[in-house]
Write a structure and sequence with these properties.
The protein has 71 residues and is an all-alpha fold. It contains 3 helices and no strands. Helix 1 runs parallel beside helix 3. The relative contact order is 0.14.
Length: 71
Amino acid sequence: MIAVKTALIMGLVYLAMGIVFAIAFLLKGIEKTDLAAHGSGPGFRLIIFPGTVALWPVLLQKWMNIKKKKA
């Protein structure tokens, strides 16, 4: 029972972090990491929101690499 609770808590933390990241990424980071997304509308961003939440560690790494190259 403890393992189930721990797994659920870890999953909720991952989801919460993904939601926070996705909001920031879709507002500021997507146009820097993907030039094809430049000028995309809210419909496109809404469509990719679930994937951004799920894959936030990968996208965070990509976003950080872009920032390092510019600095």
